[in-house]
Specification:
The protein is an alpha/beta fold and 256 residues long. It contains 8 helices and 11 strands. The N terminus is likely disordered.
Length: 256
């Protein structure tokens, strides 16, 4: 355990990695390589169905596993109003550097698919493979921005923040800083220098991230070993039993 890692246990038994004055909550299992790192989505946390399913799968397979909460998500510290894509990506890279060893299989869900790409591009030697679940790179500009009303755009420029409704919980605070930082971290406008195997899973009934978004990511990745699996009746979360079984088979294929 590194000097920057605080072996403090919260009431929920999560350990914490120090990042300046903030902390990243995480839970990990020891095991054989390649390790599995689950990267959650926008306003999701590491107690969700996919995260806990993957931990149980990794335990069964004897594989190392790590799940964590993004800055301002779940048990991690921070205000969501201060969050940016740059911060989420930097934290994910810190998690890779300080909490994992050897080759890692990154699994990114929705926004986590964007963070996954940024982390893999920054640490190519550490990446065994990538699995994107309804990956949403560039979502702040490509998916979120076009849905803003004229009034919301005006308020965002004037006030620096708006709150947008969410079917998954309380309205989400969206800041001008998040939108502008997202533009600086956009990856779909040019070739993405990633050469490892990549598997993309996307539901065709996804109301949040159109499955055409995965086609764009597939085209931009430089790796020649990229496959996209479409689930005709799949939603955004892909958390049904059959979706999780497909995810398990994908992990087994890339790991073994």
């Amino acid at each position: 355990m590194s000097d920057s890692e605080k072996a403090l246990q919260t009431k929920s038994s999560f350990a914490r990695l120090a990042r300046g004055s903030d902390t990243i909550a995480y839970h990990r299992l020891a095991g054989r390589p390649p390790g599995i790192v689950f990267i959650g989505g926008f306003r999701s946390d590491m107690t969700g169905t996919k995260a806990t399913y993957l931990e149980a799968l990794a335990r069964q397979r004897g594989q190392a596993f790590l799940r964590f909460d993004h800055f301002a998500h779940g048990q991690s510290s921070g205000r969501f109003e201060d969050a940016t894509v740059s911060r989420w990506a930097a934290d994910c890279i810190a998690v890779l550097d300080e909490l994992t060893e050897g080759p890692q299989l990154l699994i990114g869900s929705s926004m986590g698919g964007w963070v996954m790409v940024l982390a893999a591009r920054a640490r190519p030697a550490r990446i065994h493979g990538l699995i994107g679940i309804a990956p949403a790179p560039d979502f702040t500009g490509e998916l979120m921005g076009p849905r803003f009303s004229a009034a919301q755009r005006t308020a965002l420029l004037r006030d620096g923040i708006i709150h947008i409704p969410s079917q998954y919980g309380e309205p989400a605070p969206i800041t001008r800083a998040l939108i502008e930082d997202g533009a600086r971290n956009a990856v779909l406008g040019a070739a993405i220098a990633i050469e490892c195997p990549v598997r993309l899973l996307h539901g065709m009934a996804d109301p949040d991230v159109p499955y055409a978004h995965s086609f764009r990511l597939l085209e931009r990745l430089q790796s020649r070993d990229v496959r996209l699996t479409l689930i005709k009746d799949g939603d955004h979360r892909l958390s049904r039993d059959q979706d999780l079984a497909l995810l398990a088979r994908t992990i087994e294929e890339l790991s073994d």
